[in-house]
């Protein structure tokens, strides 16, 4: 009986030991029989990642973080165990990021081409690259950092909005409207000016085209002279070529002088035209307002009626002189 009890106690103790051993191995996820592969990634900072966090490949849990160790050069090595059935993607990189709103982290293994377009992440991956058996890694900002940055941005936006509200008051709005109105008036004036001087611009364009044609002819002459200089090496043709070049240079100077003279004449003509338009406008205003003799003649209808009555009387006087000249002319002979 005593041996039976001892046997039973031994079996229970053995079962308890096996159970504790199995639980410990399960908690530590010990690889029994080498059913798992190991991967090491290098980081500058692992954030709040902890041993036991999940490792995810293409959204599927593929293993766990086995250890986090400090390495030389200020690096942090994260050792991960993966199921042997899982295959790493091409050019793999590791990203540490939060997996939930409760502070849980995970390690995501993805391709380098699938990295987010973030300069910080790209810089971390580039810095941690170069190890033979170590994957490059980067740590994404957690929700607390993002919230802090968002709060800072919101504060900056509020400050900017307050400054804009202070600077852009009702007076500034009126000044802005006045500036826009003045700009519209200036645009109208410029449009009228361009329309008024379109003919002058066409004349100037034709003159410039003529000058350019003259310059082209001069350049052609110079090219011909250069060809002759190149083809002839001796005799008196060199002298003739030099004379031709001097003649071409003089013609070029005359063409430049003509262009300058045309520009000056155009400027004077424009000034005279402006003066003529101003004087003509002043004369028309005076005529319309009845100033001066001509203005009174144009605006006073009584002058026309009196002139018509005077002509009628003159016609009657001429008719009476023709019919009875003795009444007006008396001749006495002594």
Alpha-beta classification: alpha/beta
Residue share in helix: 55-70%
Low-confidence stretches: none
As a whole number of angstroms, the C-alpha radius of gyration is 53 Å
The succession of helices and strands, N to C, reads: HEEEEEEHEHHHHHH
Main sheet characteristics: 7 strands, mixed, barrel
Overall shape: elongated
- Percent of residues in β-strands: 15-25%
Number of strands: 7
Residue-averaged pLDDT: 76
The neighbouring-strand order within the major sheet is: 1-4-3-2-6-5-7
Terminal-residue CA separation: 206 Å
In DSSP terms, counting alpha (H) and pi (I) runs of 4 or more, how many helices?
Answer: 8
What would your notes on this structure say?
With 334 residues, this protein is α/β, with parallel strands linked by helices. Helices cover 62% and strands 15% of the residues. Among the domains are: 112 residues, no CATH class; 66 residues. The protein is built from 8 helices and 7 strands; from the N terminus they run H-E-E-E-E-E-E-H-E-H-H-H-H-H-H. The chain has a 7-stranded mixed β-barrel with strand order 1-4-3-2-6-5-7. Helix 5 runs antiparallel to helix 6 and helix 6 crosses helix 7. The longest helix has 53 residues. The radius of gyration is 53 Å and the shape is elongated. It starts with a helix and ends in an 11-residue tail after the last helix. The mean pLDDT is 76.
Give a concise summary.
With 334 residues, this protein is α/β, with parallel strands linked by helices. 62% of the residues lie in helices and 15% in strands. The protein has a 7-stranded mixed β-barrel with strand order 1-4-3-2-6-5-7.
């Amino acid at each position: 009986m005593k041996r039976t009890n001892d046997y039973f106690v031994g079996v229970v103790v053995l079962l308890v030991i096996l159970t504790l051993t199995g639980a410990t191995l399960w908690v530590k996820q010990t690889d029994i029989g080498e059913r798992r592969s190991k991967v090491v990634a290098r980081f500058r900072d692992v954030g709040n990642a902890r041993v036991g966090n999940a490792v995810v490949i293409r959204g599927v849990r593929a293993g766990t973080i086995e250890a986090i160790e400090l390495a030389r050069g200020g690096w942090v090595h994260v050792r991960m165990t993966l199921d042997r059935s899982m295959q790493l993607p091409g050019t793999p990189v590791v990203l540490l990021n939060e997996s939930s709103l409760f502070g849980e982290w995970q390690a995501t293994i993805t391709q380098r081409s699938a990295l987010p377009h973030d300069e910080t992440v790209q810089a971390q991956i580039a810095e941690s690259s170069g190890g033979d058996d170590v994957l490059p890694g980067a740590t994404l900002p957690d929700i607390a950092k993002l919230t802090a940055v968002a709060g800072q941005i919101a504060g900056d936006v509020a400050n900017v909005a307050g400054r804009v509200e202070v600077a852009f008051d009702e007076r500034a709005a009126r000044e802005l409207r006045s500036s826009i109105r003045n700009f519209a008036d200036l645009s109208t004036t410029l449009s009228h000016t361009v329309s008024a001087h379109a003919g002058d611009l066409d004349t100037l364009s034709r003159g410039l085209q003529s000058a350019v044609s003259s310059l082209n002819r001069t350049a052609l002459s110079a090219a011909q002279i250069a060809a002759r200089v190149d083809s002839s090496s001796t005799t008196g043709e060199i002298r003739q070529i030099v004379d031709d070049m001097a003649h071409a240079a003089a013609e070029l100077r005359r063409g430049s002088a003509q262009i300058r003279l045309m520009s000056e004449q155009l400027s004077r003509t424009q000034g005279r035209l402006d003066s003529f338009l101003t004087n003509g406008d002043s004369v028309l205003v005076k005529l319309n307002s009845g100033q001066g003799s001509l203005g009174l003649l144009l605006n006073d209808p009584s002058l026309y009626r009196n002139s018509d009555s005077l002509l009628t009387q003159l016609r009657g006087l001429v008719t009476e002189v023709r019919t009875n000249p003795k009444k007006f002319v008396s001749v006495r002979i002594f």
